[in-house]
Amino acid sequence: MTEQTTPTDFRSPFMREAQARGFLFQCTDAEALDAAMLAGPVTGYIGFDPTADSLHVGHATQIMMLRLLQKHGHRPVALLGGGTAKIGDPSFREEARSLMSDETIIKNIAGIEGGLRQMMTFGDGPSDAVLANNADWLDKLSYIALLREVGVHFSVNRMLSFDSVRSRLEREQGLTFLEFNYSILQSFDFRELNRRYGVTLQMGGSDQWGNIVSGIDLVRRTDSKQVFGLTAPLLTTASGAKMGKSAKGAVWLSAEKLPVFEYWQFWRNTEDADVGRFLKLFTDLPIEECNRLGALEGASINDAKKVLATEATALCHGRSAAEEAEETARKVFEAGTAATALPTRTLPRADLEAGIPAFRIFTEAGLANSNGEARRLIRGGGARVNDMQVKDEGLIVSLADAVDGAIKLSSGKKHHILVRPE
């Protein structure tokens, strides 16, 4: 089964909007899927392995695809990989993931579920989202039965041809037999979801194409049913950086792992060339409005970035939190005041009472990754304490500098933190 070029004359609302917003990259039979969506509601799923206790911006494309499915009256299924997480998806990874304990997987699933419920409507209605966990069936599998019933339908030669596998082998990193089974289990998931929930569409990033196609083949061979696969492009920014990464690491969807203001600020810092594209992918704004905002130039593009930041944050954290983050940014960047809603870091009271050298407090507060980086920040004139430029790396910062119980640290014009005593 090969990739098909998607036509431009779709008739179903989902396919038309998915294409217009930039979600379509590959589809196994786009015309047949379009017809199926016109004939009635389609149930589609995307899997999320609980490798951490929160999803991150790199998952946002997949969540938005499920939201779009729901918007047009179809039923989305969010599949949590409680079973497959015990193996780990090897797709395009340089080395095997560390195996997680059952306790860690359970904890991660709880965190991810909370994020998904924030962004989609779950329930028993025809288009309400379904939350499933593949541990419900994978944990009960008999290995011999799986080999006899499912394994016979998989060609090792074909599995070795998948880009995700071939790239790993070409780097001579090796691929464990445990990881090699992942594609089989993901295919089993598709068939099981088809039998349990009537799922006929699997979606995901383009790195999942091989696994998705394998699942389609399994359903066809064992159940003689037509099902579909659809992938979105893996996103990079206009400058070529991987989408969803910041200087501090992953941009988490959980407010417990990343303050709402920092999430808002991530979107506010979008490169000019990406604004229109990201508005279409990561907000619910009409496509015409996304195009209008994305076409703004000069200083006006900053207004579009604020709209992007607020709309994307509202989907993840709620409208009230998004508007509060926007107002915090206005106060910090436009009015020059230290807003109490800025991200906060706590340091030991005893250390702050004694005083901490400026280079070290920037490191401990998370505005620099090392003391050396903090020193360079100060030498370059980018470090400020309570909006005053720091010129001396050894300047002692203490509780005596606190304003309303907090010390405001700034790295450049866009990164600010309030330091308070524990």
From TrEMBL:
Gene3D superfamilies: HUPs, RNA-binding S4 domain, Tyrosyl-Transfer RNA Synthetase. It is found in: Cytoplasm. It catalyses: tRNA(Tyr) + L-tyrosine + ATP = L-tyrosyl-tRNA(Tyr) + AMP + diphosphate + H(+). L-tyrosine binds at Y45, Y182, Q186. GO terms for biological process: tyrosyl-tRNA aminoacylation. ATP binds at K245. GO terms for molecular function: ATP binding; protein homodimerization activity; RNA binding; tyrosine-tRNA ligase activity. A motif ('HIGH' region) lies at residues 50-59. Its EC number is 6.1.1.1. It comes from the Bacteria. InterPro entries: aa-tRNA-synth_I_CS, aa-tRNA-synth_Ic, Rossmann-like_a/b/a_fold, S4_RNA-bd_sf, Tyr-tRNA-ligase, Tyr-tRNA-ligase_bac-type, Tyr-tRNA-ligase_bac_1. Keywords: Aminoacyl-tRNA synthetase, ATP-binding, Cytoplasm, Ligase, Nucleotide-binding, Protein biosynthesis, RNA-binding. A motif ('KMSKS' region) lies at residues 242-246. One of its GO terms (cellular component) is cytosol. Pfam families: tRNA-synt_1b (PF00579). Homodimer. Belongs to the class-I aminoacyl-tRNA synthetase family. TyrS type 1 subfamily. Catalyzes the attachment of tyrosine to tRNA(Tyr) in a two-step reaction: tyrosine is first activated by ATP to form Tyr-AMP and then transferred to the acceptor end of tRNA(Tyr). This is Tyrosine--tRNA ligase. The gene is tyrS.
